[in-house]
Amino acid sequence: MSVIRKVRAVEKIFAALDSEIKIFQGTSQISCLAGCGKCCFKPDIEATPLEFLPLAFDLFLTRRIDEVFDELSTSEKAYCHLFTPKPLSLDKGSCGQYVHRGLICRLFGYSAMKTKNSERKYITCKPIKESQAEKVEAVNRSLKEGGKVPLMSDYYFQIRSIDPDLGTNRYPINEAIRKAIEYVMAYYAYRRRPPIRRKLSA
Ligand code: SF4
Fold first, then answer.
1. Domain residues for 47?
2. Nearest residue to 81 via CA among 66, 65, 97, 92
3. Ligand 1 centre and the CA of 10: distance in Å?
4. 48 in any annotated domain
5. Is residue 151 part of a domain?
6. Is the pLDDT score of 13 beyond 70?
7. 165 part of a folded domain
8. 167 DSSP β-pair partners
């Protein structure tokens, strides 16, 4: 499968998830705190290279792939390379590539995971738990009554089915991004660059 087809397949999954999250936000009325970037500061975020293939391909099309690859290769950041913290802030900032953020970035705060007993457990961050405690409690209750919340394992299963090599193993986020970039670089090392810059995602 070509890089372009894999990117389209990943973006199709992202679009379906974004719609499901919109519905969940509508029913739960849960939302991130404005300007909060606490989850992006986490030093141990893990992701698959495949979820960052759309980012790597966009960097290739916009001729920034070498620059970002070099930055990643020399970066000593413990947190995500794409994150820009607000000056003098330990929990505020923004994603420099929000449109191309990974699957983990979309799921975190708005999804559930399956426990060993096959129960679904809503996964969200401390700021949301503390600032919207009643709404979080209502979500936990609704899960016990069959309420719908995006399921992490469902989406990782879909991603893996596109390309098990790129979509199974999880790495620290900067390494996952670097591996996605390496994949696109290798793919186009002996292939012609796509004729025109086509915006694959809105
Ligand atoms: S890709 Fe963006 S949203 Fe995801 S961790 Fe990095 S900065 Fe945060």
1. 3-187
2. 97
3. 17
4. yes
5. yes
6. yes
7. yes
8. none
